[in-house]
Amino acid sequence: MPLPPFDRYIHMLPRHAVKKRLEPGELGYDGYEPDLSTLEMRDENELLAMELVREHTSVPISKLIHRGYGFNVLERLQGITVHDRASWEKVTPRQREAIRLQVREYIQQPAQVPSPHPPGSIRSLVESGEIFHAQLPHRGPFTSTKGLS
Questions:
Q1: Which of 30, 73, 112, 124 is the most buried (most CB within 10 A)?
Q2: What is the rounded (10 degree) CA torsion for 56, 45, 137, 23?
């Protein structure tokens, strides 16, 4: 069984990752009730964002293999993760520094991707235009959409 999800299960297979939405009435991590009404649009936005990153950066990003009703199958990128403690402990300090610099570059590159929308515009998933999603437990440093802008 995969880790407890917020609104999707993520199954890691040897060559693929499968992201499957929770079913209506199914609770996520710590009793989280997902907003299923915006999930399809969020999936679409995620796939479009992945395509932008793939086209405009050197950041390794999974390719969509199959899109099904309520699930997506993605290519699984190979390598070790920092969550794999046994492997990470074998990495030398010099290699760790190289990894740190590479990750920093990967974080900086998407900020340089040109927006397909007019300057200053932010696309919202809800009709009200709000960006803030009070349902999510880890929203970042902003307490409202107004605080973001």
A1: 73
A2: -140
Give the whole-angstrom CA distance, residue 48 versus residue 19. 16
Backbone angles phi, psi at 67, to 5 degrees: -115, 120
Radius of gyration of the chain from its Cα atoms, rounded to whole angstroms: 18
pLDDT tens-digit map of 32-47 = 888 887 788 788 888 8
Tokens read off for 11: 């199954």
Separation between Cα atoms, residue 48 and residue 119, nearest integer Å: 18
Ordered alpha helix ranges (H), the chain: 39-56, 85-88, 93-108, 145-148
- Half-sphere CA count of 118, side-chain side, radius 13 A: 1
Q: What is the identity of the amino acid at 142?
A: F
The Cα–Cα gap between 97 and 61 comes to: 22
What amino acid occupies position 139? R
More confident residue, 141 or 85: 85
Position with higher pLDDT, 4 vs 76? 76
